[in-house]
Write a structure and sequence with these properties.
single chain, 299 residues, 10 helices
Amino acid sequence: MPRNAATPQVYKHRLAGYTYWSRRTRSDSSRFAPVVLVGGALHRKEDWGRVEQGLLEHADVICPDLPGWGGADLLPPYLGPDLPAEALVRLLDDLGVERVNLFAGSYGSSVGYRLAQTRPERIARMVLAGTMGGVPPESRPMMRAAVALAERGPRERFGPAAVEALMSPHPDIAAQAVVRRVLAMRFGAADDADLAKFIANTNRLLSRDLIDPSLPPAVPTVFTTGEHDTITPPERCRELAFTCPESWYVELARADHLIHLERPVQLVDLMTRFFSREPLDDLPYATVVEDLRGVPVGA
């Protein structure tokens, strides 16, 4: 992907005693509202790589470290997605941005879902990837084992355990060996602050369901995940798509839970099409594309 030459600007934010950060990069040719990228439990605002660069061809990109992420303050595990959602609104106010397109993946998807419930006027369109309100029963033993290693060690076993918990063993996953190396390096380099956030964020997921679908989010939303996702299996993501009155479900081929690393070009294409209000009926990289707008909520 072409590299945008603009220098990212980093901003400090405060809410309810928490300090957190954002990284905004200006596009040379904005076609739609700025895109906010909210990632998983150990994601940092600097980690978006090819996804960020691809989107900068079309819009400004804002990458936050909300409370509980990256360089922000730790978020205690007893707090749910409401505070990070409020923090995102404060962040947008600080930046003078009224309305955005939002991407939220994995652990961060509950924050996107909650923001769409409480402040839909701040979101033009939203893509939720690997939507996670909690950890499914079949994945809980591996996640608990990763938390135990983060808490008590041995530290060298934490990275491999976390990678195994997040990635599918299926052989037909794009760039699988490269992604495993990237994750192993990321988890292997985690410091005490990173591990504390991983422990708190994972325990938050293990202790409750972070998504309450009783209030349908009034935002056009694409729910997507990889066809081999074992953390948020396709059938679970598709079920959540039925909780929104204006939703689509897209399943990406040759990917599991980590679509932003395995299929970044395809993810950027999906977001660009959706945020530009282009049709989604011809996606060569998708195994399933469903327009669910005519289906009653909860059906």
